[in-house]
Amino acid sequence: MNSKEEFIKIYKENIHREGADKLLSFLEGTHSDFFEAPASTKYHGNYEGGLCEHSINVYHCLKDYLSRQRVKDTYKMKYSDETIAIVALLHDICKTNIYKKGFKNQKINGTWEKVPTYEFKDDMPYGHGEKSVYMIQPFMKLSREEAFAIRYHMGFSSVEPTNTVGKVFEIFPLSFALSTADMEATYFCEENPQNKM
What we know:
By secondary structure, the chain is mainly α. Helix content is 49%, strand content 10%.
């Protein structure tokens, strides 16, 4: 099963909210490159299909984190399969249609060569997590905790004031869990050229 098939399988098995079918149709449609897009221009998942693959990795990391006994018993984090799938699979929907294929000159074995690359071009610069929430909401409603989790999934690596992020994590623990899963997927599950330097 390829990444797109796995994403759709997880999505359809877990997300049954009104409008979910329309959102999936958008992601699969001609006005979306979600399944072909990279996850970044030069870091993790900077290849075709990287965004979809990253979303699946975050899903598995989040499921694993939330299945831990300590997380369930001590932290009292218990979320539906639907909520877990929504926040993990859709946290980076904001990256749809923002990476364009291009070329750059790179020195390879002492010789400059033209190599393919991705360039960042966002025609709707509405932030990161907040843009994902903004893109999901016309299709289906999010709970307050789901919206905050997606909005603050970058955690302390975002440009937000640290006291704001900390307060969000305190009020909405799913935000912390999603941020943790996102970092785990980014730094440990995915190929990151920066880690090879």
